[in-house]
Amino acid sequence: MRPTVHDIAAAAGVSLATVDRVLNRRPGVKAATRARVEAAISDIGYERDMAAANLAKGRVYSFLFILPSGDNSFMRGLEARVREAMQRAAVDRVAISLVTVPPFDPAALAEALDAAEQARPAGVAVVAVDAPEVEAAALRLKDAGVPLVTLVSDLPAHCRSHFAGIDNIAAGRTAGGLMRRFIGPGRGRVAVLAGSMRVIDHRERLEGFRAAMGEAGHEILPVLEAQDDPAEAERLVGALLSQSREISGIYSLGAGNRGLIAALRGQPSFRPRAVIAHELTAHTRLALEAGLIDAVLNQDAGHEVRSAIRVLKARADGVAVIEAQERIRIDIFLKDNLPFAEGEAEAPARSPDAA
Amino acid sequence: MRPTVHDIAAAAGVSLATVDRVLNRRPGVKAATRARVEAAISDIGYERDMAAANLAKGRVYSFLFILPSGDNSFMRGLEARVREAMQRAAVDRVAISLVTVPPFDPAALAEALDAAEQARPAGVAVVAVDAPEVEAAALRLKDAGVPLVTLVSDLPAHCRSHFAGIDNIAAGRTAGGLMRRFIGPGRGRVAVLAGSMRVIDHRERLEGFRAAMGEAGHEILPVLEAQDDPAEAERLVGALLSQSREISGIYSLGAGNRGLIAALRGQPSFRPRAVIAHELTAHTRLALEAGLIDAVLNQDAGHEVRSAIRVLKARADGVAVIEAQERIRIDIFLKDNLPFAEGEAEAPARSPDAA
DNA sequence: CTGTTAGCGCATTCAG
DNA sequence: CTGAATGCGCTAACAG
Questions:
Q1: How far is the CA of A304 from the C1' of D9 (A)?
Q2: Do both B284 and B271 map to the same domain?
Q3: What is the CATH number for B42?
Q4: Number of C-alpha atoms within 13 angstroms, CB side, residue A113?
Q5: Which burial class, exposed, middle or buried, applies to B198 when counting CB atoms under 10 A from its CB (0-12, 13-18, 19+)?
């Protein structure tokens, strides 16, 4: 059996209460006694049974998720994953609450962060907007001792405990690598469609994409900024396609896939050699299956949410996480390896079989 | 607070012991009483606190992993992941043991399975070889009430509780889709390198690959079977490359990557348009970085091991799993999206930062 | 058939 | 500064 508090108490010649005091770094223990207990702890190789500890204190971890509102498909999918996590959270003694704030609004986000601090949650997960107010609010949370995990969109590393999201430079590079291979030999003209260059994720993807494409000497056209507006995206891409048949590829590095797909559908006579987009949603999945899009890079929102919760819990307990488990992959989906489930939704649970 | 056994006892007008008896489906309760208790349970919406239950019974889940021996890089990586899991298993009240059996040896595997049954573990995870003896042994385990999870390589569904591995047909199809795009327009001749066609994974990959390539009318050469022997693989590929410069692509669908890479290195004057292999190991990673291989399809061994453990635990407890979390992805790695860590190893844990 | 009681590993009053 | 006692939610003898 694993050693328990009793074993340490016996070894150190003290009572359970004293052992508990040094375990939880509480005051009221003479330095010498503390030393004896600590010696016994590391000596015996004691490890606290968190389940029992949590049972005894009736602890529940209260976590807060802050997400952008708006009709972005990916964000709504993310919210759905959070809501699923809320359902099953109770069995792990965690209570998740969820608030949404207007997208791309640093002031609103900073305010939500400050409000969070008042509620003194055990941890906060936030889809960040990198702006000074937000950084300041994040640092206030840090000072208050509340672990902060950025989700999908990051802040500078010193402002948060952990980032649950993908390496966007690598994602852009990956898109570039695929684009090059898909276009094939020869020089091509490639269009880039973006939501807004204000968000760091998008800038990073572009940077990575340029680096990967640049090596091959392709021409990258000026970025089309659709400001997350489907109609605008459709107009921009439509105009591009009708003006010129010389487009070899299109890289959609952020929001705006609905417009892109509509534009592609609107010009059935011409198809670029390669169309690559981000985020597997109902729309991009359909486009992939229809052959309008050739590849979709994806970050698994469900994984990101579960990872954020695990990391927050680990931080709250002061224990380490399994790094490999928390690394969010850059998924590449072709029409050949689409997951079975509809859209990005989690599949319904099968009834567990025998045993 | 969540309802507890006390609440049910009070509501049903019985004692804790009786509640416990019906909760654990133990005999010795009058049908009428049982019904009253069950009514109270579903009425109040009671859910058992597994942590407390496990604490009370001092339960430890004992799981057994059965892996093939031999020097296959992927399998040795898998074993490393299992050993890592063994280390951190204690904190979750699980004890993992590990045995290896000669690869591709149905008799040895069946024997190991039967031995496992004697040890009465709470669950078994096995890299299966699909053969009658093995199926029979698996069914014996099932009859004994021991949950069985197949790992990487599957058995027919009725023989096991769950499969922790990828959809190999989809993997082959994905390789085919990439190959087509990488080769570009026009008809190409494509070679396929396999370990042995005896294992179902490999047959399935080939099937998927053929389906995806066939659509495009490429010529697929007769499969080169290297029987997992690096020297043989090198010889076969080397001969092919020197005989003909007409090879547009090579798909290595199983073991034998070391030989493939050596052969490629041995013919620097000629490179097929596309080389696609399976499993990210130290060898394939290097070859990817060097541009000898264009894409590697991978299954995350760490994920598979963690998933197997979660599923086994859920089966032992009779609870459902989060399906999406247990779906093993077909990872596609280009040199652009290689994970940071060296080889397939898990990265060393970072010290947790503030909070 | 049913109830009482002690205890799992730990945290927390409340005395001393 | 230190210790004894009680309880978290649940299980398991052991009595009735």
A1: 32
A2: yes
A3: 1.10.260.40
A4: 31
A5: middle
CA distance B103 to B270: 35
Contacts of B34 (CB under 8 A, 6+ apart): B22
Same domain, A273 and A190: yes
Task: Verify that A226 and A82 share a domain, yes or no.
Answer: no
Residue A137 domain-assigned (yes or no): yes
Q: Are A325 and B336 in contact (CB < 8 Å)?
A: no
* pTM check: above 0.70: yes
Q: Are residues A174 and A212 in the same domain?
A: yes
CB of B315 closer than 8 Å to CB of B123: yes
Find chain B residues with C-beta within 8 A of A142's C-beta: 354-355
What integer is the mean pLDDT of B64-76? Answer: 93
Confidence of residue B350 (pLDDT cuts 50, 70, 90): very low
Which pair of structure tokens corresponds to residue B271?
């490179």
Percent of chain B with pLDDT over 90: 75
pLDDT per position as a tens digit, B49-63: 999 999 999 999 999
Average pLDDT over residues B30-39: 89
Q: Are A226 and A232 in contact (CB under 8 A)?
A: yes
Answer yes or no: are the C-beta atoms of A110 and A133 closer than 8 Å: yes
Q: Which domain holds residue B12?
A: 5-46
Q: What is residue B352's three-state secondary structure?
A: coil
Q: What is the pLDDT of residue A48?
A: 94
Q: Is residue A138 part of a domain?
A: yes
State whether A352 and B318 contact (CB < 8 Å): yes
Q: Does residue B355 lie within any of the structural domains? A: no
Q: Using CA atoms, how far apart are residues B126 and B133, in angstroms rounded to an integer?
A: 14
Nucleotide nearest to B15 (CA to C1'): C3
Q: Which residue has the tokens 């005051």?
A: A27
Kindly report the bases of strand D lying within 7 A of a protein C-beta atom. 1-14
- Is residue A355 domain-resident? no
DSSP state of B299: -
Q: How far apart are CA B199 and CA B155, in angstroms?
A: 11
Predicted pLDDT at A346: 40
Q: What is the 3-state secondary structure (H, E, C) of chain A?
A: CCCCHHHHHHHHCCCHHHHHHHHCCCCCCCHHHHHHHHHHHHHHCCCCCHHHHHHHHCCCEEEEEEEECCCCHHHHHHHHHHHHHHHHHHHHCEEEEEEEECCCCHHHHHHHHHHHHHHCCCEEEECCCCCHHHHHHHHHHHHCCCCEEEECCCCCHHHCCEEECCCHHHHHHHHHHHHHHHHCCCCCEEEEEECCCCCHHHHHHHHHHHHHHHCCCCEECCCEECCCCHHHHHHHHHHHHHHCCCEEEEEECCCCHHHHHHHHHHCCCCCCCEEEEECCCHHHHHHHHHCCCCEEEECCHHHHHHHHHHHHHHHHHCCCCCHHHHCCCCEEECHHHCCCCCCCCCCCCCCCCCC
- A32/A101 same-domain check: no
A57 Cβ within 7 A of any nucleic strand C atom:
yes
Q: For residue range B270-297, list pLDDT tens digits in order.
A: 889 999 999 999 999 999 999 999 999 9
A90 and A39, same domain (yes or no):
no
Distance CA B121, CA B64 (A): 7
Number of domains within chain B: 3
* Amino acid in position B315: R
Residue A241 belongs to domain with CATH number? 3.40.50.2300
Same domain for B101 and B177?
no
Distance between the alpha carbon (CA) of B320 and the C1' atom of D11, Å: 23
Strand B123-126 and strand B61-68: the pairing is: parallel
Question: What integer is the mean pLDDT of A50-76?
Answer: 94
Q: pLDDT tens for residues A197-215?
A: 777 889 999 999 999 987 7
Q: Answer whether any strand D atom is within 7 A of the Cβ of B319.
A: no
Residue pair B116/B64 in contact (Cβ under 8 Å)? The answer is yes
Same domain, A194 and A214: yes
